[in-house]
Amino acid sequence: MSIAIVLGLLVLAIILFATEIVSVDVVTVFLLIVLCLTNIITPKEAFEGFSSDFIIILASIFVMVGALRQTGVIDTFIARLVNIKKQPPKIIVFFVMLVASLTSGFMNNTTITALMLNPTIGLSKLSGIAPSKILMPLSFASILGGTCTLIGTSTNVAVSGFIVSQGLPRIGMFDFLPIGLILLGVGMLYMMTIGQQLLPSNSKEKLEEDYAMRKYLSEAVIAEDSNLIGQKVSESDIAKQGFTIVSIIRNGYNFIPTRFTKLEAGDEILIKGNVDDLLKIKDLKGVDIKADLLDFEKEGNELHLAELMVIGGSESLKSTVERINFRTRYGLSILAIHRKGKTMREKIGKMRLQVGDLLLVQGEKENIDFIRNRENDFILLEDYKPNLHLKRKGVFTLFAFVLSIVLGTTGIVPLSVGFLIGALLTVATRCVNPDEVYDHIDWRLLILIGGMSAFGVAMTKTGADKFVAEYVITIFKTFGIYGILAGFVLLTVVLTQPLSNAAAALVVLPIGLQTAAQLHVNPLTFAIAIMLSASVSMLTPFEPSCILVYGPGRYKFFDFVKVGGILTLIMMVILVWIVPFFYPFKV
């Protein structure tokens, strides 16, 4: 009965994680509560994962990465990219991937992609190379760079913590560096050769197209004295201005208009058009964009337009525009929203933000500067202005980060203590604002990892891992030990599509370790293969790093399937072949 409950919860968790009906941290806490109420695990076992040292490592890394961003260390490092603009395309792609992979080996890959997005786009304009030829290699390099070190991804840290809880040796900072370098080297070679041939190439017109030419969705209201009243949608003054009316909300009812639908007073219309055209709509009598700009205009302050991209880890993710209270929090009004590849017909205020969404905002310069310099939920899309001079606090932050790595990897202090020392130094010296320290930590991820570690304990305690392992062995045993390992690599890669990488790895890991035990082989062989396979899935643009480049690169979904699919297959083959070489089946 216990096995059925655990496996049933596992299936439910996968469905809820994939559909994101509720937040992943809420789902994780729900699983722990059910496991405790059914006496499958004790409260001590349920919450033990949250007190593990790998949680301290991750939290400390989040704080130090926040300090590195605020003090300009990462920006200064990335600014060197502009100096390679006169090199051949393959060399430019090589250096972009090299910088991305080096930095993502020590911090979150989504953060690196977000920070490098503007410099890379600027580099593409200066060098005359289509952005689509550089941006996908950027995202892939940031992903593969995380396979080189223990702290390269949260998945690596989570897997390391779980295997220690199972009585296995702790994974060191650079223990699997040779495997990561092989994956990275092959990935870079592929993207510089075959990948470049497969990537789409923007036409000259598209290359010169400014961000303002994107089709944005905005919301307007037909006033009582509007000349549009009674006009047919297809023949209205709005249509003549180049707008497309995608939806009408009338008396609380949302419907898609036909070309013969007539506009009425009080209609809330969702219109799609270019930025410049959207701003001209105010010139039409009786039509107003539903952004509360009147207070700004009455004050006589100069207003500026800006484009913000929602990034991974943002607290705004999955919240509606209304719930964020954007105007009060940031002093900016959202004029319109752009989401690549999707037609949106709901009211802007009711939309739930997703990674990669572009917000067209208007407000005072100082509020836009706040987003540029301090905010971690969005990045400002603008012409890149490199900062080549590292400030004193930046130097000290970099020193604290390196000191943490040295202290932890040399064994002078435990790794968790080393990173905690680094985080404490950045806070004590105000390299990061003490009032914002906790804002830099991705609490949802920590809850997910701590909770799923406890779920792994439940699988082991009930024998659910053994039950599933027997089925896996039965299915793949005809292919030998390498075939069974390949099955786990494939399963992990598939699960990373609906789940986060860390969740996928922690779901598969207990089964993999039990399989290794039943086969009497080295459990680290399976653990390392599962851990790294969670970080090499580039089949679709659903990975946060890929979502960030999806719109700016003007990619299509199939571009990732084509280019990333081949690369993912190559990575899987390499893992099955190379992991047993460094971590032999027989110890």
Briefly say what this structure is.
The chain is built from 27 helices and nine strands.
Structure report:
β2 and β3 (253-255) form a beta hairpin. By secondary structure, the chain is an alpha+beta fold. It is globular and about 80 Å long. Strands 1, 2, 3, 4, 5, 6, 7, 8 and 9 form a 9-stranded antiparallel beta sheet that branches. It is built from 27 helices and 9 strands. α8 packs antiparallel against α10 (177-192) and α22 (464-476) packs across α24.
Helix content: 55-70%
Shape: globular
Low-confidence stretches: 203-213, 292-300
Largest sheet: 9 strands, antiparallel
N- and C-termini, Cα separation: 36 Å
Number of helices: 27
Number of strands: 9
Amount of beta strand: 5-15%
Rounded mean pLDDT score: 80
Radius of gyration, in angstroms, nearest whole number = 25 Å
**Class inferred from helices and paired strands:** alpha+beta
